[in-house]
Amino acid sequence: MQPDTYRVPEHDREVLIAPPRDEAVRLGFRFIADADHSVASRTVALKPPQPHLTHEDAALASAADQTDEKRHLFVADVHLEPGGGPRTRRFEQFLEYARDHGDVVYVLGDLFDLWLGAGHEADYAQVLATMKSATQRGLKLYLLPGNRDFLMGPEIARHSGATLLPEHVELQLGGQRCLICHGDQFCTADPRYQRLRFWVRSWPVRAAARLLPMPLKRWLAACIKRRSDSDLIQKSEQQTGLVESEIRKVIDHGIDVVICGHAHNRQARAIGHGRLFVLDDWHDAATALACINSRWEWLDIP
Q: Which residue in 65, 133, 216, 289 is a FRET match for 2, CA 20 to 30 A apart?
C-alpha cells in the first residue's frame, strides 16, 4: 500500500509541513521519546472560546506567528453532533487553546458524527462559526475525511476556514516521514466493511449524493448506520481492529510514523523500524497527540 503524498499550500506556495526548532521548555512540556517509545502525558486546562478579535489583538497574533515555534496537534473521532453539546464545547475550547499556542491542528477523520455534504452546514452552524473565527485569527486547521464524514467537500473550507486534505497525507516532522489517515483502511480483517467503504466512496455514489435532496440523504444515512451498528455488534474485536500487517506494509515502504484514529483506543507502539500512534476518541473526554521535532506527548483535556 503506497500512501499518497500531499503538499500543504501555504502563502501561495506548496511546502511540506515541518516543525521548527524545539521550544519544549518555553511551552512547559516534558517529553519522553526513548528507545522503548514511551510517550509522556499531561493534562492541559482550556478556556472558553473568544468570539471577537480586536485590531490590536490581530496585530499581536500576527507578530507572534513570526516568532513562535509550531507544535503539531493530532485529534480524531471527535464525533460532533448536530446542534452542539459537550463535545462541541470541548472542541471549541480546544481550538482556542491551539490558536493561543500557535499550534497546527490536524483532525484525522470523523470530526462530525455524520456529514452529508453541501446543505448540512446548518446542523453544525455553531461549531463551524467557531472554526471560522479561529482560522481567521491565525489557526492552521486541516481536516481529513473519516468513515462518518467522507462527504466533506468545498463547503467545509467556505464555512470553517479549514483546509480539507486527501484520505492519506504524508508529512515531514522532525526529519521523519509521517503518514496520517483516518485508519479504517487498515481494518482488512473485515472484508464486508472494506467493500462497503469502497462502494460508498466511489465517484458515482459521491456524485449521486450531491444531487439528492437533504431529507433523502438523511433517510439513507440513517438506514446505513442502523445496518452498520447491527453488524458491529456481531463482529469480534479482531475483525474491527487495525491489522498490524497492513500498517507494517506502509512502514516497510519507508514511513517512520503512522498516525491514525478510527479504533477509538489510544495506542503508542513500535512496528518494525517505525512507530504507530492510534488516537483516542472524544466520547467521554478530549485527547490529542502533540509533536515537536519528532518528540511526542499525549494531551488530556478535561
A: 289
- Please state the separation of Cα 180 from the chain's center in Å: 8
The alpha carbon of residue 20 and the mean position of all alpha carbons in its chain are separated, in whole angstroms, by: 21
Instruction: Specify the residue for cell string 467493500.
Output: 195
Which strands sit side by side in the sheet containing 163-164, from one edge to the other?
40-43, 295-301, 286-292, 72-75, 104-108, 140-144, 163-164
Tens of pLDDT along 191-231?
988 998 898 888 898 888 888 888 888 888 888 777 777 67
- Rounded CA gap, 273 and 248, in Å? 9
Say what the pTM is.
0.77
- The answer to whether the beta carbons of residues 115 and 78 sit under 8 Å apart is no
